[in-house]
Each structure stands twice: as structure tokens, then as C-alpha cells.
Amino acid sequence: MGRAFVYVILGGGVAAGYAAQEFVKRGVSHGELCIISEEPVAPYERPALSKGFLLPEDPARLPSFHCCVGSNEERLTPKWYKEHGIELILGTRVKSADVRRKTLLTVTGETISYKILIVATGARALKLEEFGVTGSDAENVCYLRDLADATRLVSVMQSCKDGNAVVIGGGYIGMECAASLVINKINVTMVFPEAHCMGRLFSPKIASYYEEFYKSKGVKFIKGTVLTSFDLNSDGKVTAVSLRDGSKLPADMVVIGIGIRANTSLFEGQLTLEKGGIKVNGKMQSSNTSVYAVGDVAAFPVKMFAETRRLEHVDSARKSARHAVAAIMEPEKTGEFDYLPFFYSRVFTLSWQFYGDNAGEVIHFGDFSGKTFGAYWINKGHLVGSFLEGGTKEQYEGIAKATRLKPAIEDLGELERQGLGFALTA
Ligand code: FAD
Ligand code: NAD
Ligand code: ISD
């Protein structure tokens, strides 16, 4: 049994939703496009899962956060896909792909043929077992990647009001989940191996601002160590976690955010891979001309840094997806993807944005004891990255614009003195 489409999007996450919207804007015909997703729901804004979805009061629930509301655009409900003649094959995992024959085989035994394939398989959460620790399948241990994980996290969280949560990992999931747990009146201890939180992005000075803020909300930090084992009770629930430094923490629940791996396995040996993702050119086209890759799974040339990167952020998923569709439908009119990396987070009353690259020397500015502060990264004499906490829309636009210009910086002292003003007048 089988079906054939002109365009197939493999994966039904953020990139798939934005790609579908772009196909419709550019005039795809009914019956030409299909999305196949392992998830049982139409594409949604994944960032909501660690923020609005976890709120105790009036939490975000589907259908409110289907794509593309995260960009303040229309909300693509299942009805929208139907009205535009887009086939949504949900709750269906693709188990193998043959790029030579241009086919995908689903777990239900169906063969889906395509002329053009967009791979948007995203990533999976790394499991503790991959670091030699067993027991993370216990019912009160939570990972967070998709709607099912988030639904489970809410139910575990609701069953341990006033209890103790241990959050493993000091990255995005750790920071955003710790904040949500606190808002749900749970006592939180964060454990991570680095010297400070958000080690992949923050300078020690920026990190210490957030750590102090979290401490003021009651969060405890245990840094420079990792979890080594779980204590389980007779119901198979975790009751405590042991750390490499010899300490043991009581736990009513555990949340784990220790990074991700891009979902490339269907294409290993068939497409060129780089940086843990599917290598694509500036049109998001892989080593096979009929296969494009977008979002977390794509390693693409970031023009402004003359380097191939794989980014794990929603803005990149949205824009790379749109670019791939433009390149597919209007190849002559579509140039190379010229992307300015953009990351952000919102926790408690705080909100930050980052643009560019955090390479080179850091110059901090603003009031680190107040509401608005930031940093610039200077590499090889040019401003390459900008961070701002507590900015206004205009200020965020200002740092984005200045970072894209990559201005030459001759005097670091002068840059520090001008602070945010430098970006706003660049
Ligand atoms: P995904 O959105 O992960 O979608 C991949 C899809 O492919 C899924 O539906 C999956 O089920 C499907 N799939 C995979 N393999 C198969 C298969 N074999 N068969 C069928 N279907 C398959 N980024 C930010 O910039 N800001 C944020 O605030 C932010 N918050 C986040 C919060 C959470 C909880 C998470 C998990 C991520 C967050 N991110 C955030 C990252 C952002 O969500 C991702 O970068 C983005 O979702 C990537 O989009 P994608 O479409 O590439 O992958
Ligand atoms: P991450 O890469 O942000 O952080 C991983 C963290 O795991 C590290 O900071 C480190 O503290 C920790 N770690 C690594 N190995 C460990 C070990 N053996 N034991 C204990 N801790 C260990 O990844 P994440 O926080 O898991 O986030 C997953 C994905 O979700 C990322 O792609 C991220 O970009 C995305 N996400 C993004 C946002 C956002 O952009 N606001 C929010 C949530 C999730
Ligand atoms: O980009 C985002 C983000 O940070 C969210 O929480 O999209 C979601 C929401 O805006 C959708 O509800």
C-alpha cells in the first residue's frame, strides 16, 4: 500500500508548521503536500511546553499554541490543513527512508513516495542511560521534548505539591523548568556539572545574575557534579538521587535536561552529515538534490560567520523552513539563507534575547543589580554577539541590527562606556 505526493515534510514540529504555511503562501495545490509526524497533533510552538504549558493558573493548551502563533501569525489548526488540501499523517513514525527510490516507509507499513522531501525530524532528548546511569524510566522522572512529555510533567508536578524536585542540567530545559516548578510551589535543587548555569551561552557574570535571582526564589544550586544513581521505592518511584560528590538529595520528582541529539538516523549512510546534523547548502538542500533539511536537524552555512552550524532554536527552525520552501518553489528568485542566530528565554519576570555568536572577549554593560543589562562579544576586532536582559522591543531590534552589521571595535573601553547606546546608534 502507498501514497504519492509532490512534497513531503517528514516531522510535524515547528519547522513543519512554518514550512506548510510558506507552501500555502506560495500556492501549493490541493493534494500535493503531506506532513508525516510521530506526534498525534498538528504542528505546534514547542517553546510553550516549558513556559505557558506548565503554569498552575490558566495554562496554555492546544489548540491555542499551534504554529504559527509564536510569530504572531495565523494559527494553523487541523481544519486549516484540511482546507488547504494538506494531508496530515499523524501519530505515525517513519521507520526507514530510501533517498534513491524517493520513498519513506512508515511503522504502519505504508510507503510514501515524494518528488521533494523536507526533513524536519528535530531532535530527541539525551537519556541519563547514555551516561551510564540507570532508572530514568521511573514514573516520577521527567524529560521534556514533546507534548506527551509535557503532559506527563504536569501530572507528576501536580502530584507533588510542596515536595522536592531535583533538576538535572543547567541549560535551557533546566532553567525554564526550575522556574516553572517554583511557580508551582515545588522546592527545587538544580544539579549540573559546570561552574555556572547556561554554560553554552552565558558569561560567568551573566550566569551569576540569574543564579542569584533563582536563589531569591528559593532555588538551590549544586554545581560541578553529576547524578550517579537513583534510590527507588517498592512502587518504582524515585525517592532520592545520589551525586558524584557523595551527597544524596531527597526527591519527589526529577526533571532531566541534559541536551539533545538531532534525529538523523534515517539518513545515515545516505546523506552527508556534519556537526551532528544533515549538512545542507544555503538553500537548505542536502547532498541529495531532492532532499532538504530544516530546523534542529539541519547543519547549514551561517553566512555571517562563514561556518556550518546546527542551531537548536525556534527562530532558526521557522526561518530555515520558510527558506527551504522558497528555494523549492521559486529557485531562481531565492538566494542563500543569510541567518542571524537568535536565541531567547523567559523565566519568572525575566526575559532576555541574544543575537549572533558568543565567541571572543565579553564586554558587559548596564546595571547588573537592576532590570536592564547586557553584553557584547568581540571577536577578531568585530562585534559578533549581543545579549540583553529586560530590553524594550526597540532595544532588542537595536542589538539585532548592530550585531548583523558586525562593526569593527577598536576601543573596548569606549564600547563598555557606551554600553547599550553603542548598538542603538550603530
Ligand atoms: P521539532 O519541533 O522537535 O519537531 C520534530 C518533529 O519530527 C516532531 O514532531 C517529531 O515527533 C517528528 N519526528 C521525528 N522523527 C520522526 C520520524 N521518524 N517519523 C515521524 N516523525 C518524526 N527555542 C527557542 O529559541 N526558544 C524557546 O523558548 C524554546 N523553548 C523550548 C522549549 C522546549 C520544551 C523545547 C523542547 C524546545 C524549545 N526550544 C526553544 C527549541 C525549539 O523548540 C526547537 O529548536 C524547535 O522545535 C525545532 O523545530 P524542528 O521542527 O526542527 O523540530
Ligand atoms: P542544553 O544543551 O541547553 O543544556 C544541557 C545541560 O546539560 C548543560 O548545560 C549541562 O548542565 C547539562 N549536562 C550535560 N551532561 C550532563 C550530565 N552527564 N549530567 C548532568 N548534567 C549534564 O540542553 P537542554 O537544556 O536539555 O535543552 C534541550 C534542547 O531544548 C536544546 O536544544 C535547547 O536549545 C532547547 N530549548 C531551548 C529553549 C530556549 O531557547 N529558550 C528552551 C528550552 C529548550
Ligand atoms: O515562541 C514562542 C514562545 O516562546 C512561546 O511560549 O511561542 C510560544 C507561544 O508564544 C505560543 O503560545
From TrEMBL:
A GO cellular component annotation in the UniProt record: cytoplasm
Domain of life: Eukaryota
Keywords, in A-Z order: FAD, Flavoprotein, Membrane, NAD, Oxidoreductase, Redox-active center, Transmembrane, Transmembrane helix
InterPro entries: FAD-oxidoreductase/Apoptosis, FAD/NAD-bd_sf, FAD/NAD-binding_dom, FAD/NAD-linked_Rdtase_dimer_sf, MDHAR3-like_C
Cofactor: FAD
Enzyme class: oxidoreductase
PANTHER family, per database record: APOPTOSIS-INDUCING FACTOR 1, RIESKE DOMAIN-CONTAINING PROTEIN-RELATED
Molecular-function GO terms, alphabetical: monodehydroascorbate reductase (NADH) activity
Gene3D superfamilies according to UniProt: 3.30.390.30, FAD/NAD(P)-binding domain
Similarity annotation: Belongs to the FAD-dependent oxidoreductase family.
Residue ranges of domain Monodehydroascorbate reductase 3-like C-terminal in the record: 340-423
Protein name as catalogued: monodehydroascorbate reductase (NADH)
Organism this protein belongs to: Coffea arabica
Record domain FAD/NAD(P)-binding: where: 7-321
EC number of this enzyme: 1.6.5.4
Signal peptide: none
Alphabetized SUPFAM superfamilies for the sequence: FAD/NAD(P)-binding domain, FAD/NAD-linked reductases, dimerisation (C-terminal) domain
Pfam families, A to Z: MDHAR3-like_C (PF21791), Pyr_redox_2 (PF07992)
